[in-house]
Structure formats: structure tokens, C-alpha cells
Amino acid sequence: MNANMMTMKMSVYRRNQVHVVLFSSLMAMLCYLDRAIIGNIHDELLVHLNMTEQQYAIAGALFYPGYLLFEIPSCCFLEIFGARRWLSRILVSWGLVTVLTALCQTPTHLYISRLMLGLAEAGFFSGVVWYFAKWFVPSERSTQVAVLSSALCIAGILSGFISWLVLSFLGNPFLGISNWRWLFIIEGVPSIVVGLCALYVLPDSPAEAPWLSSDEKVELIARIAQHASEDDIHVHRDGGAPLVFSWSCFVSLLRLYVYPVRGGLSLATNWLLMLSMFFLFAPLACTPLFLPTIIQSFGSSSVVSNILSTVPYLVSLVAVNLVAIHSDAKDEKPLHIIATAATSMLAYAALAIATSCSSNFALQVNFLFYFIYFNLC
Q: What's the CA gap between 256 and 237, in Å, rounded?
């Protein structure tokens, strides 16, 4: 490969990072913020909605049935309508649900809100990773997903900090609305705004990217197609242009996504992969809901626990990028996954021991979570 071609590839790579990855990461950050709000106002929900701990846990879990139910259909609609319109729809939908959650008066209202939030968010992360596949070859994607994961770490930092600011300094009530309800409004409105901006910022494919020249578009589309498998249907249609919607098209795509799943269920290796993913992501699902509460159990106040809960995310922000960069540089994935998963296992075991010792305090919990969050790489 000559020097001019290499220079062009690096220039395209950097511009795609700025225009595609950074905006997608902003969307991911807002997604995590809206999903994790209830973890920062655990005590307020118990008091003002007259909830029990069991009802709070149910509310947290109800996010996932809707997410699971609509995940594959959402990916089909993303393929049909294109990333620009469908990701915009997802953001605006979850933003509206988050804002409306401020109106909850009973545990049942919160149950419905969490279920609707899962339905609204379904397909977002898989859709963004699918979208990245249009812009980056496989050897480049770990770094892009790491940037996306970094946005989740930043969201964890902002979540605790915003909650601390609102609960500590905003009047209660403010303009006749309880300060904890303002959290849903403050964190939900930006999702609506960014979702509307996505209509004008995100192109559906490299062929529509205004920051690329005609030659750069042709070269990028050809390079992506060269690295795609036969099943990567989005790279075989003019660089991934949206389809014309019809229900028959939706059903065809649904079968295309579901059929390999049905066949794959007969393979033991796929079951092993699903089992490993379950054990890796179960703690990730619980962390935003219970991390402030765990820290509070060591003697911190509700407000202080929100601040302390930001520390693991700070460490994770560094770790997730270091591991991803090293993985891409070595072009090696399995050993990195095994190492981070093993570290996570040891950290959770240590955390279980630490939480049973009354002499420990909140900062020790954060120290143990440093290693747990290393697994998010």
C-alpha cells in the first residue's frame, strides 16, 4: 500500500471517528443516564412512591422484558428505515418516557414506565454496533466500541454528580415539583433534543457522508465490503442505504435474523457463549441500580453515596480504552476477554467478603469496583 493511500485511509478513519463515533457515544451516554436514574434516587422512590425494596427491585428488572421482546424487531426496523431515522426515534422515545416518569405516583406507575423505557431503548446498542460496521473494518472496531463504553463510564460519573447537585442544591420542591422528579426531566430532555439532532447529523451510510470526497466514499465502501461476510447484508446495498418499508420486507428481515438463531441453538459452543454473556452482563445490569445503595450501606448518606459512586467509573474510563487499544494493536480478542472476565470474578468474590465486614467503609467498596469495572473492557 503506497503512502498516499495510507494517508487517505487514516484521514477517513479520523473523520469517521469524529462524526460517527463521538455523536453515537453522546447518544449512548444519554441512554445510560436515563436508564440509571432510579439507582441515584433509591431512597426517594421508597419514601414518595411508598415502595418496598422488593418493589424497587421489580421496577429495575421490568426494564428488560420489553427490551428483550423488541430487540430483534428494532434491529429489523433499523435496517429498513436506516440509522438516521431509527436511532433518532429511539432517542426521542426514551427521552419522552424518562420525562413522563416524573409523573409517577405509585409503584405501578413506575413499573409501566420502566417497561416502556425498555421497549423504547431496544435495539439501540446493537444498532450502533451494526452502524459502526458500515464505517470501520473488524480490526478497527474494538477501539470504536471502547469509545462507546467510555461514554457509559462518563455517564456513570455524570449520573452521580448531577444527582448530587440536584438533590443538594435544587429547592425541594422547585417550581412546585420535588427535586427528585426534576432529575427525570433534566436528564430526559437532552435525549429528545439529541434525538432530533440525529436526523440532521447522522448519515445512513458512507455514501451520504458530507465529510468524505467521492473517491473516499468509493474506497471506504469497497474496503468495508471486502471485509464483510456473506451474512452482512447491510454492506451489499449501496453501502448500506435504507430499504423501502413494507411488512413483507420486515418479515423477511425478521426471518433472516431469527433463522441463524434457531440453527445456532443446536451448537454447544453457542450455549456456552450465551451463558458467559449472561454472567458477564448480569452484574452490569445491577450496578447502576444498586451501587449507590451498596455504598450507602457502609455509612454514607444518600447524597454522598452518589458522589462516591462516580469513582469506579473514572477508573473504568481509563481501563476500557487501554485494554481495547492493546487488543486492536495485537489483533487478539479471546485472551483479553478471559483476563478481564477472570479479574471481574475475583473482584466480585472480594466484594462479597467485604460487604459482610462491618469495619469496611464506602471507599473500600469503590476500590473493589475498580477491578469489577475492568471487566467492561
A: 16
Cell numbers linked to 40: 441515584
Burial (CB < 10 A; 0-12, 13-18, 19+), residue 149, is buried
Using CA atoms, how far apart are residues 15 and 2, in angstroms rounded to an integer?
20
How far is 179 from 168, CA to CA, in rounded Å? 9
Task: Report the alpha-carbon distance of residue 319 to residue 343 in Å, rounded.
Answer: 12
Distance CA 330, CA 139 (A): 10
C-alpha cell at 337: 476477554
Rounded CA gap, 311 and 306, in Å? Answer: 10
Please say whether the beta carbons of 217 and 206 come within 8 A. Answer: yes
User: How many Cβ atoms are within 10 Å of 147's Cβ, its own excluded?
Assistant: 18
Extract long-range pairs of 168-172: CB within 8 Å, 24+ residues apart.
168/303
- Rounded alpha-carbon distances, angstroms, from residue 204 to 193, 213, 235: 19, 16, 12
> Cell numbers at residue 116, please?
416502556
Residues 6+ apart with CB under 8 A from 364: 298, 354
Any idea what DSSP says for residue 301?
A: -
What predicted TM-score, i.e. pTM, was given to this entire model? 0.79
Cβ pair 49, 101 in contact under 8 A: no
pLDDT tens, residue by residue, 160-212 = 888 888 888 876 777 888 888 999 999 999 999 999 999 989 898 888 889 98
Give the whole-angstrom CA distance, residue 144 versus residue 152.
13
Give the list of residues 6+ apart from residue 109 with CB closer than 8 angstroms, or none: 49, 103
Q: Write out the three cell numbers for 316.
A: 473504568
H helices of 228-300, in order, are 247-264, 268-296
